[in-house]
Specification:
2 domains, 11 helices, 394 residues, alpha/beta, binds adenosine-5'-triphosphate, binds magnesium ion, Glutathione S-transferase Yfyf (Class Pi), Chain A, domain 2, 6-stranded antiparallel β-sheet, 6-stranded mixed β-sheet, disordered N terminus, Rossmann fold
Length: 394
Amino acid sequence: MPSDTQTLAARPAAAGKRRAAVTALKLTRYRNYATLTLPLAGLSVVLTGQNGAGKTNLLEAVSLLSPGRGIRAARLDEIAMKGGGTFAVAARVANGAGEVDLGTGVVAGPMGPESKRRVHVNHAPVGSSDALLDHLRVLWLTPTMDGLFTGPPADRRRYLDRAVLSIDKRHGTRANAFEKAMRGRNRLLAEPAPDAAWLDAIETEMAELGVAIAAARREWAALAVAMIDVAGRRSAFPTAALALSGSLEGDLDGFAAREVEERYRKLLRDERSADAAAGRTLVGPHRSDLLVRHAPKDMPAESCSTGEQKALLVGLVLAQARLVANLTGETPVILLDEIAAHLDETRREALFEVLGDLGAQAFMTGTDAGVFAPLGDAAQRGRAHDGRIEMEPA
Ligand SMILES: Nc1ncnc2c1ncn2[C@@H]1O[C@H](COP(=O)(O)OP(=O)(O)OP(=O)(O)O)[C@@H](O)[C@H]1O
Ligand SMILES: [Mg+2]
């Protein structure tokens, strides 16, 4: 229904934001889907089905319409049907600017499937998956994130950097460049007599990138805190208090960026032998952490109950959705895998209400269709089984 979809997508969402929505999706050789063509009305989507039916796979395919490795952080050869070869995801997206076709996947090269995914916008190749952010932002909450607060800092850092990327398109490039420079330095330090001038050059680059990464994270945190504050007062989800821990993030509290950069460059130079002995760079933005507290209880998130942690996570993803909508003028697409688990009925209904207010397209999954009844005709429903999805007409 392209014309209805157009109207729906162009309809202002909450507070005058435009809504971006996936209006058609086609998968080829994508995990358990040999081929799947899904006509969507642009509404939210509720997908139910038994375990192993392909619900999370579908959400993962949508998540690849954003930079990075998607909701499972999967390798490309895991995604292609039966562990290898090519696959494709093609989507039509209606957003404030009209309609755009986005595509991604792995194509066959002379030596077998290519190792990097390709990205197309309106059927023309683009050099970087960051270009997808010009058309669509995708946020998600999945069961693997249930351990976010209790798990290792690396998980929270990835969450943080993805959140930053969804409002700052250059953040991914900066983070990748830093990682690459740091790997270069670690390799050099492992040599018996590393070239000092080369180390100087790499460390200067690392300092510049490191401070840019820390500054972008701080900016995100300040905006997120403000957004949580605004939403929190009338939310069914507990407000989170956020803080960043990290040497550069901390230094930016008291010093100008230029000065922090110089201090970090000097620290890297002074710590060469310690880092060489450790076999890695011990200080930098790759060691930072996102600290989350349950504000009303004044309790670290990791000490909260499973349900409380889930509610905190939902609050965070909703705040992020509002932040993206406010900064870009367009609501993101929100993927909520097994969202009903751990949420009591009141919270579930509050979530549906907030999604309605926000006006965003959400893809929600569950094994029990009944819990989504309160969504009424705000959602299109589909049932996954045997590599197929039967969609009810919207
Ligand atoms: N590369 C692949 N090729 C073929 N099948 C795959 C591939 N990767 C995963 N699968 C299969 O896809 C099926 C569906 O997985 P998915 O995680 O989407 O299920 P689900 O509906 O979310 O189930 P649950 O309710 O248990 O979360 C699984 O049986 C899995 O083995
Ligand atoms: Mg699943």
